[in-house]
Here is the input.
Amino acid sequence: MAKLKSVWLQELTWEDVAEYLKSDDIILFPVGSTEQHGPAGPLGVDSYAAIALAEDAAKETGVLVTPPLWFGDSPHHLDFPGTISLRTETLVEVAKDVICSLARHGFKKIIIINGHKGTNNAGLITACRSLHQYELPDVFLSLVDPMYLARGIAHIKDAVEHHAGELEISHVWYKHPHLIKQEKLTGEQVNLEPLMSEFTHKDLLGKGGDSIEIFWNSREQKAFAPTGSFSDSSHASPEKGRQYHEYMVKNLVKFIGWLRRYEGPIGRIKQ
Amino acid sequence: MAKLKSVWLQELTWEDVAEYLKSDDIILFPVGSTEQHGPAGPLGVDSYAAIALAEDAAKETGVLVTPPLWFGDSPHHLDFPGTISLRTETLVEVAKDVICSLARHGFKKIIIINGHKGTNNAGLITACRSLHQYELPDVFLSLVDPMYLARGIAHIKDAVEHHAGELEISHVWYKHPHLIKQEKLTGEQVNLEPLMSEFTHKDLLGKGGDSIEIFWNSREQKAFAPTGSFSDSSHASPEKGRQYHEYMVKNLVKFIGWLRRYEGPIGRIKQ
Amino acid sequence: MAKLKSVWLQELTWEDVAEYLKSDDIILFPVGSTEQHGPAGPLGVDSYAAIALAEDAAKETGVLVTPPLWFGDSPHHLDFPGTISLRTETLVEVAKDVICSLARHGFKKIIIINGHKGTNNAGLITACRSLHQYELPDVFLSLVDPMYLARGIAHIKDAVEHHAGELEISHVWYKHPHLIKQEKLTGEQVNLEPLMSEFTHKDLLGKGGDSIEIFWNSREQKAFAPTGSFSDSSHASPEKGRQYHEYMVKNLVKFIGWLRRYEGPIGRIKQ
Amino acid sequence: MAKLKSVWLQELTWEDVAEYLKSDDIILFPVGSTEQHGPAGPLGVDSYAAIALAEDAAKETGVLVTPPLWFGDSPHHLDFPGTISLRTETLVEVAKDVICSLARHGFKKIIIINGHKGTNNAGLITACRSLHQYELPDVFLSLVDPMYLARGIAHIKDAVEHHAGELEISHVWYKHPHLIKQEKLTGEQVNLEPLMSEFTHKDLLGKGGDSIEIFWNSREQKAFAPTGSFSDSSHASPEKGRQYHEYMVKNLVKFIGWLRRYEGPIGRIKQ
Amino acid sequence: MAKLKSVWLQELTWEDVAEYLKSDDIILFPVGSTEQHGPAGPLGVDSYAAIALAEDAAKETGVLVTPPLWFGDSPHHLDFPGTISLRTETLVEVAKDVICSLARHGFKKIIIINGHKGTNNAGLITACRSLHQYELPDVFLSLVDPMYLARGIAHIKDAVEHHAGELEISHVWYKHPHLIKQEKLTGEQVNLEPLMSEFTHKDLLGKGGDSIEIFWNSREQKAFAPTGSFSDSSHASPEKGRQYHEYMVKNLVKFIGWLRRYEGPIGRIKQ
Amino acid sequence: MAKLKSVWLQELTWEDVAEYLKSDDIILFPVGSTEQHGPAGPLGVDSYAAIALAEDAAKETGVLVTPPLWFGDSPHHLDFPGTISLRTETLVEVAKDVICSLARHGFKKIIIINGHKGTNNAGLITACRSLHQYELPDVFLSLVDPMYLARGIAHIKDAVEHHAGELEISHVWYKHPHLIKQEKLTGEQVNLEPLMSEFTHKDLLGKGGDSIEIFWNSREQKAFAPTGSFSDSSHASPEKGRQYHEYMVKNLVKFIGWLRRYEGPIGRIKQ
Here is the structure.
């Protein structure tokens, strides 16, 4: 396999991609959001997370990455200027179109890297489940999300992790230090229990006890979390970001390694 | 509040419902599936679960229940005869229509009881998030699922819980003993790790370590779980079903009690 | 053919269904509504009608029945609390998904039993016509509705039959006596002619002269039929319900018998 | 009211229409089809019917007519060259767009003239019911169809009326004599009972006994009615066409007269 | 090839069309609009243009024409009474359905004649591009529009051509003299530059310099062009209409001639 | 107005954006594609073009830019590996969601920069026209495309400009020299006239004579332009790229300046 000059699809010519497909069939698709992340974090936090994970895992394994999708499913942040939200239905269609285009070229193993913890998943799962059942039964589809991939490293944080929390702020701080406003980091934590009963989720990366999903909208969020941050980010640091990032990249690299050798049945059943 | 003769909406007249709405505004909407549950469980397992939880929580608290939706999002079971699957997009629209109808009458707090562990959630979350942001900002919407509501009772089971597992079989056994084929219960457990890497989900109700979502279709499932059961159900029993059921009903009753007293901000922000 | 323990799909295992499909390929799909039926009739009238017809015809002929769809197309009743209405587009998609799931398993002759006289038909016809032309040319699809199936027994009623009328009230009274509020039966008849010109439909089951379709909405209906009943139900009785029910079941049994022997061309043309 | 030089909207300027709207608010919308009508009838039969009824009723009453929609819902005729079929969903959207445009200008009473007996109704009813409930509660919408409007004149025909039957052929013959191929009129009648059971519809305009709807597609129709005609058209004549046409125009004129004076509640409820 | 008695599909029987398809496979589909064209032009201007071009080119070349679509994409004219606008999405679906119906019969070369300069193109291009890529790769699809087809004759006009301009008024005047209100022709020209910057389009048929697309709605149009006309039509004449029309028909005839002999690759690649 | 540290929305916090909106209301939205551009150009050519134009115009004028959309409407390139195409319907929805999010925050003047010459326009026009008519009548929407914005500089090129032509290659060469494979530049020009008749478009930036739109798909394109390039790019150079880029930026800066001072009626009509 000829070494490509970039892991990013957009920097290659179609002939480069044709060359790659002779010996490999894995590609990563980073999906983020443009969504407020409190007074300290830039609107691109989730996109930067997805891009960093995809790029570094790709560089280590030699797989390709598509251009990122900078927009995700963020309606409950729309009362904070700058948030751009796709409706879930739109996200489903974008994901389907990207995956179908890739599958047509012969990419057989597609890994979506969702940087937007949890909230993009309804749309991305809808797209993948439907495509894999009805249209692309032979294409392996998977979905990676820090919320589930980083449980084993959650212990490094000092605070409860919710929106704009310690780890996601640390992650961007590590990768793009100039984009974090350190003076705006906060020690405040929104207490969710009076708002959402004792059955609220305790921590995005945490283990969690009995819970019930409650839906809130952007006006409500603006009311109960007026700065946009739900979580204590005062313990964030580039070093924690580095550990968090490297832990996830290591997991991703392991997964890609497994996937390279994997022969099914997922994505390999004769229909 | 006059005592209604039934908790089920379909058994009441519109005048009964008008009467109820004078003093209460909570309603439960049970959503199940018609989907294979192995050789021992009937196709209606998830619907029976949702119906039983809704009915018993309603009887204890005096709230109303809509008729159940017997169909859910089950594409990966379609290679097993009798499975009926709605596309996720269809489930979204049904949920939206039901919720909008209820909201129009003045139901202000709507609780969906999803008996179809996890798999309906993409559609139900899509419907609720979108409605609450754009169309029904003043209506409280929540989603209950045994997968999250019963974590605290998971310790009573002896086996790993996946599709057609010990607890869901026990649940229906307790409520509808004649619908479980006891002679078809099985001690076999599908080993998911070779199929889906070390990052597979370990247990539907379990705590879970680092995980990555992999999508499989009905042909693949038929190949790796040819009986339709993923899990050891040999330790199932009506007694475990009773404990599991009562634990969840107790949680639901507690949640409904909290919701009766709750005054916002969720569902109560002036727009 | 082994005798199944139930005609209801949800009570069977997938292996039971596989067994059934070895020797038969007919299934009934009952579709109702949750819609006000005046002060005397429960919201489930149309669903109870569809369920009763399907269940009794199935028991007599040994065919299977899917779980019922409790929700139908009822926008013009939405000003009466408790009515739940699917948009026609949603009903189309649900019907398509259910039928496609069944067809995939090998059900080749599907009979929809619509208990919601007339009003569900736009959606159900749209689904069936489209599926049979474009996606399922080899699957026989048909639609049964009391409004057309019971013309021959219409003479037993004393009053004009419109919404919440003598026969549909009698039908539920016969099957579920405790669900009819006898003290709320009414001798009043809404006079439709001043509302909708001389070209109004004279009787849901009647022969009818020249007519023009006029569309009314729920506010208008609440204005011209404030109790929710259009029709004189004072002559309703369980006995009339029995005759009406048995007449339709007899017709259905005859039709199923014909369909068992029928070999096309409908549903049997080589494409 | 100034006399307009044409009843057809497309022949007027916007100022003419503005003038009309000062004193009137009724408009007719003719919807036809482009669909085979056997060897003797042109593909435009249903459109010619709708156009003729609308134009003549408009001339007699002084109301306006929109340009016709030449395409309808005709999937089951697609195996006959020249048939152009809109999917039902498309027809719904066209009808909604036309009606919403008209309502915006102040047309408050819209009458759809469907020349395509029955088959367009699923789409047209879906559009009207939805619009009138949700978007245009103050606009009176109605749907006219020869199948229902001409029952009182059905006795003039000698044969059973089904597709390409005696009356619809006569109708076009009367209006456009050069478009009927008289030498291709046929005495043959497709016997529907063996094809669709004893519960088949007996006559499009007839009274009908117990019936069940069966869906057939274009391949099946080509097989059981290879000439495209279902009905004996040998008794068709321009004279019957004239009687049939004038009877319907008389009914329409009566209806428009009633509608001019009608003050609600349909289309007049304060929301 | 037997000479057909009409170029219009709706006037022929299906057997006539079957006969035509034995030796030819070209058909024209005229798409217009019903949209205000100032105080002098009728609402049907664009439809008349499409019809006239299609009919005359068809007569000269012996190809068929479908019935016209009288409705187009005209939202920005909706503040002028009589305008009927399809949403772009609706236009896409109508065009797809018509084209798919034609393709099914064996028409392999379909030419859309868009009389509604430019504004229908978003929808028509969307339909054609999608169909030709995904569903009808072997069917040749093309789109003709006076705005592009008549550049070579633009020199005959004296004024800048915008909506309701000299050439389109002349075109209808030539074909339907009684539909133009000569006394309402106007010498006024809306000056678009202050409204839309120096980057406005200078002339619908003109060459144009650097330009930027600005979107205006019907309220804005009513404000800046209150008569509905943008352009000086005082130099319009039937004679200019004749030259304009004949020039385009000549081009169309030339194109149809080329298409008759053309063997691909467009529409002829083995997939 | 405080100087922002970046023109890119994703690099700012929501508080930065709130600050910006106090004194300005213009934002640019760059839309590109990921689409083959021959053997010399990277797949991201159109995205790099949109990004470069937006960023440099923003820096000069102090307005904001949203993150780019890297995917566009490119079905006819799908036979070249690496191309990712959104269906037009998907592009419409993405554009609507982005614009609606921006409008909600108070951005009143939105300029889309389409780097994907022409081909994205059907979708982008559909989105903008519909939004501005029906949902955002007070928001000024405009669409910039090099194909129309750079006509005045077209004279600097030596060859006819079509896909992967001299100017677009030069543009990326100037901005990202390492992404152009100079050794793969080509002197070959696809002759479009035999493929698409004499009515083919002569040059993407050219004036053009009489033309007719013909639709080709990816298989056909692969057949007639097997390298993916349509055009002679041998005269491309970073210097031409610079001139081309600066010409367009200058135009954009002029337009933004005009827009800052512009007070309507577009985007300023009281509804």
